[in-house]
Amino acid sequence: MPLAVIPGLEPKHLKKSVYAYITDELNLEIKSSHLWIKGDIANEFDAKILNIEPGEFMIEVDKVVSLSSGTPFEYSLSRHIYKDFIFEAIFVEK
C-alpha cells in the first residue's frame, strides 16, 4: 500500500484491520475490489515455495482494490495449490 495514498499507515494497523483504518480513521471510501483468478503451471520458483512439482497446476489470484476516487491502494498476486484453493463470493446489495 503506497503511503502517498494511505498516509500514516503503521505496523499497528496491520495487526488489526487496515480497511478499518482506511475507512474509520482516514475517512476514505473503499469502492471496488477486482479479482482475476486463473489456472497456471508452476515454474521452478513456484514449485519450491508451494512444495509441489514444476509443471503442476496451480491457481493464481490477482487483486486490485480502489478507493471511491478510483485510486488503487492495494495490489496483490498470490499463487495457491489447486487442491487447497476455495473461492467464495458473497454479494450484498446496499
Counted by DSSP, the helix tally is 3
Question: Helix/strand/pairing class, anyone?
Answer: alpha+beta
Low-pLDDT parts are none
> For the CA atoms, what is the radius of gyration?
16 Å
Give a short account of the largest sheet: 3 strands, antiparallel
Report the mean per-residue pLDDT as an integer.
93
Number of strands: 3
Helix content: 10-25%
Spatial ordering of strands, largest sheet: 1-2-3
The backbone outline, from C-alpha atoms, is elongated
List the secondary-structure elements in sequence, H or E. Answer: HHEHEE
Distance between the termini: 27 Å
Kindly estimate the percentage of residues that lie in beta strands according to DSSP.
Answer: 35-45%
